[in-house]
Amino acid sequence: MPQPSPRALAAFAALIADSTRAAFLLALLDGRAWTAGELARYAGVAPSTASEHLGKLIAGGLLTEERQGRHRYVRMAGAPVAQLVEDLAARAPADGPGEEPRTLRSVGAGNAMARGRTCYDHLAGRLGITLTDALTDRGHLSQETGFVLTESGLRWFDEHGIALRNPTRRPLARSCLDWTERRPHLAGAAGAALCRHALLTGWCVRIGSARAVKVTEDGERAFSELLGIDPAVLR
After folding, report:
1. φ, ψ for residue 145 (rounded to 5)?
2. Residue 98 has pLDDT above 50, yes or no
3. Is 69 contained in some domain?
C-alpha cells in the first residue's frame, strides 16, 4: 500500500479533530447503531448540525450508514476504527481545556464507565483489566510477546461454550490500551466472544444508554468459579 500524502493524513486527522464528531465516535464505541437524532441529543447539537458531521464521518470511512424506512442509523465502520478511537482516547488527558464543571451525575456516570464498559465489542475498564489478568494468571492468555491465547485458553473458551467466531479473520487475541486503567485489556475475537457471552448469559448488563456495564450476581458467581475472581473486586 502506498504511503499517504501529508495532505491526506492531515485531512483524515481533521475528521476526528472536532468535539462534536469526537463525541459521536466515543458514543458509537458501544458497538450499537444509533440514529442521527440520538447522536444529536447526546452531543447537544441541532439535528442539521449532526447530519452535516455524520456525512463527513461516513465519507471519510469512519462510520457506515444503514437505512430502515425513514430512520437513518450509523455505526462504527469496524473494529479497526474502534481501536483507533480507543487508542486516541487512552492518550488524551482526562480533562481538556475549557471543559465544563463536572456534575454529580456526570461523576457517577464516569465512575460506572471506569468500573466496567464495552469498548466496541469487548469489555473494558476495571472489569476488562480484571478478566485479562485472571486469564493471564491461569495460563489461558500470554502477554509475553503481545496477546496470545494459549492452548489452555482455547480449551477454556471451548469447555465453557464461549464461541470464538472469527469470520473476518481478525486477530484471535489483541491488546487494547484502556483509557481509564492505562493498561491493556483483551480485545480481538476472543475479547468479543467473552463480552458477547457475558451479555447473553446475563453475567453483565448494560447500564442506561451509555457504554457502562455492571456485573450481576450470576456474573460474580461465574467469574469466581471459572476464573477465581473475588466478587468484591467486580463491584
Report:
1. -130, 65
2. no
3. yes
